[in-house]
Amino acid sequence: MDIDTAADATTNGASHFTLDADTFRKIHPAEYNRRFISQGVRADGRPLQRFRKANVNVGSITTANGSSMVRLGNTTVICGIKAEVTEPTPEAPRAGFLVPNLDLPALCSPQFRPGPPGELAQTISEYINQICTSTNLLNLDDLCIASGQAVWVLHADILCLNYEGNALDAALAALIAALWNVRLPKSTYDELEGTVRAAATNTIPLVLNRLPLAATFGVFDAQHLIADPTDQEEPLLSSQLAIVVDQEDNLCGILKEGSAMDRERMVECIGLARNRAQALRRLIDEALAKADAS
Amino acid sequence: MRPDKRNTNDIRVTHTALGQLHRADGSGRYQFGDSSVLCGIYGPAAIGLRDEKLDRAVIEVSFSAAHGKSTTRERLHERLLRSTFETAILSALHPRTGIRITCQTLCDDGAVLATSINATMLALMDAGIPLRSVITAVSCMVDKEGEVFLDPTALELKEAQSTHTFAFDNVSGGVVSCESTGVFTEEEYESCYDICKQGSDAIERFLRHALQKKLEKQSGLDFGKS
Amino acid sequence: MVRETEPIANNERAFVKNVILEGLRVDNRSAHDVRTVKINFGSQWGHSEVQLGKTRVAATVSCEMVRPSPAQPTEGIIQFSTEFSPMASPSIESGRLSEEEVLISRLLEKALKRSRAIDTEGLCIVAGEKVWAVRVDIRVLDHNGNVLDCACIAAVAALQHFRRPDVTVVGEEVTIHSLDERSPIPLSIFHIPICVTFAFFSNGERQVVDPSLLEEQIQEGDMTFVINIHRELCTLSKAGGIPIEGSQILHCANIAAIKAAEITELIKAANMESQTRKEKKKESKRE
């Protein structure tokens, strides 16, 4: 589609020239998006408060103890969980570890540079870690093999393959789906040798106390509330709000940044987040059922 | 009754100090009881060509915990601090410059994020950087019985079911930043919102008083009671 | 930020040098005056904040239980880490370890660890299994010259102020008692090494104690003595700069011993004051 640039709107009767939509988007992304959003539709065709289509797949990485792939629109993340034996800390001799880590490599979007993890990846990893610990997602004592000697450490590596915005929602969904999919081998600790013997097959599932899932919102031009922002929209938002909800509709975390937001709007978002989390949960359930059947 | 004999909606004894650092362009210290954060500000000053923005000042934040190696927790604090103050600072007035905010936790007894937001606010006022609004922050927690406690200490936080930090802006009265973790209901969230709003209004008066005292001392004038 | 340390005008440089040649200093001190030392302790154990004139350093001591190194199974671990906070000076960039930071950490390590100032064997809980690892985090908050001496005072003060939780050992089982449960235990410190830095001017003819930032930038060489109240020299550091005669070193060492004694007294007094304040607070709580 060709857009006639608003030469008449910005400059009075200056030379009239046309740009194609793609160039317009690149040189003036704020104005480009504003024209859509003021009409109640987003640049990718969604209504303002519709989330992108989600897609969940589990168990595709056979070498991992648990894995999943989640797509939100074109944002694609995979999560692989690898269990390793490690020594517990002296303070908590029975507690294992869950180490979630999000990687946003340079291959998933030109906005990320190669090298050590950037701020976005580090902060999302940290927030996911906070959700896991503060909501008591796993009983870490379940990961004990022999008290004070050996426990499981679950390395949950979440890797983004294609970044089209909203990494938190996708990463958390991928982590939860992968944790459901985890099967640990039966293992015993040999006192004499000081080693752990694990069975050849992975059979024991994890017990998850809750299923927190995130929904992210943004405010465009201080008035339009949009759900599930894309990477094009993210830098233009005046504020962002992520809400994490579990299966019993309890809140498990709220992260709000940017300009001021009133209470009514936050309450509105909580309602929308509940619906979204429910929908994502159903998708994860379906994917798990499918994986079990095959 | 709380261990330190406060009511549930009391904040701890608050201390403020402005301009303690000699080299920084502005500095502020904020204390909630034993939690203490020092903030220093440089700028608006020239920054590297690669970093500068043509239409506004770039805000850089670094936050450092009281002890130990730096972790991703500090990065999340930095991100929240930066996004909080990007909305408060009139950065369009200083294009192609940088404003560097550094927060150093001196003592951690809970509510460090709120303490650092308040310390940064003091430092920004001390540095004379043009602001859109005054932002003040306070933390609260909900215990297992569902009771809400304002400004919890590290000891109290061990019993927390959920913890919340809210930063409010004094012009619109809305939430600028919020970090909530743990498990909580919508009703609990709303009562946390209310109790923190009241707390942050009290803190705004503290900050105003601190600045007024400093200016009176500087100018020798009496600004009266506001 | 690109702001480098501001260059000093030739006139100013010459002025500072001439003033020192006349036995004076630009900040109205005499050659062997140390700037005013202010020591504050935090309300929690092991927190100190020290001002040396306009230089300001905070130190925090923390501890955790770890497995000892196999080479020294009965010794606790003491670690020093120094960080120049970006608020200390506009030229400091965060996240990059500078040479000066490493230098300060190393010198403090030499001064406090190698001189056996702190009893590391007392930090052992179960030999070969569990020991305390004590960590001293030094944060430079305001850089106005002679950060090393200030950092040393802060570290020593914080170590003296620090209390670790008490433990009970039954066989291999170790219980850590919280601070309320049992009164915490101070570190056993055998002696208190204090850093005293000299800056040399006009080919080593003149020396000043505790150089300010301006003097530091103009100095021709410097030397640091680490010395305790018993006039025992723990570490001597002279890294480069102009050559100094042996007799001058001895002269400086004598001055350093006097300064160290003065500073030790200040730290002791500040520590006493903070203890009495803590006890008063406790009493008022009981009431």
TrEMBL record, chain A:
It holds the Pfam family RNase_PH. Keywords: Cytoplasm, Exosome, Nucleus, RNA-binding, rRNA processing. Residues 51-185, 211-275 form the Exoribonuclease phosphorolytic domain. InterPro entries: ExoRNase_PH_dom1, ExoRNase_PH_dom2, ExoRNase_PH_dom2_sf, Exosome_comp_Rrp42_subfam, PNPase/RNase_PH_dom_sf, Ribosomal_Su5_D2-typ_SF, Rrp43. One of its GO terms (cellular component) is cytoplasmic exosome (RNase complex). GO terms for molecular function: mRNA 3'-UTR AU-rich region binding. Belongs to the RNase PH family. PANTHER family: EXOSOME COMPLEX COMPONENT RRP43 (PTHR11097:SF9), EXOSOME COMPLEX EXONUCLEASE RIBOSOMAL RNA PROCESSING PROTEIN (PTHR11097). This is Ribosomal RNA-processing protein 43.
Automatic annotation (TrEMBL), chain B:
Signal peptide: none annotated. It is found in: Nucleus. GO terms for cellular component: cytoplasmic exosome (RNase complex); nuclear exosome (RNase complex); nucleolus. Transmembrane segments: none annotated. Keywords: Exosome, Nucleus, rRNA processing. It holds the Pfam family RNase_PH. GO terms for molecular function: RNA binding. One of its GO terms (biological process) is rRNA processing. Residues 11-130, 136-195 form the Exoribonuclease phosphorolytic domain. Belongs to the RNase PH family. PANTHER family: EXOSOME COMPLEX COMPONENT, EXOSOME COMPLEX COMPONENT RRP46. This is Exosome component 5. It comes from Rhizophlyctis rosea.
From TrEMBL, chain C:
Coiled coil: none annotated. One of its GO terms (biological process) is rRNA catabolic process. InterPro entries: ExoRNase_PH_dom1, ExoRNase_PH_dom2, ExoRNase_PH_dom2_sf, Exosome_comp_Rrp42_subfam, PNPase/RNase_PH_dom_sf, Ribosomal_Su5_D2-typ_SF, Rrp45. GO terms for molecular function: mRNA 3'-UTR AU-rich region binding. Residues 34-165, 191-257 form the Exoribonuclease phosphorolytic domain. CDD domains: RNase_PH_RRP45 (cd11368). It holds the Pfam family RNase_PH_C. Its main location: cytoplasm. One of its GO terms (cellular component) is cytoplasmic exosome (RNase complex). It is found in: Cytoplasm; Nucleus, Nucleolus. Keywords: Cytoplasm, Exosome, Nucleus, RNA-binding, rRNA processing. It comes from the Eukaryota. Belongs to the RNase PH family. PANTHER family: EXOSOME COMPLEX COMPONENT RRP45, EXOSOME COMPLEX EXONUCLEASE RIBOSOMAL RNA PROCESSING PROTEIN. This is Exosome complex component RRP45. The gene is EXOSC9.
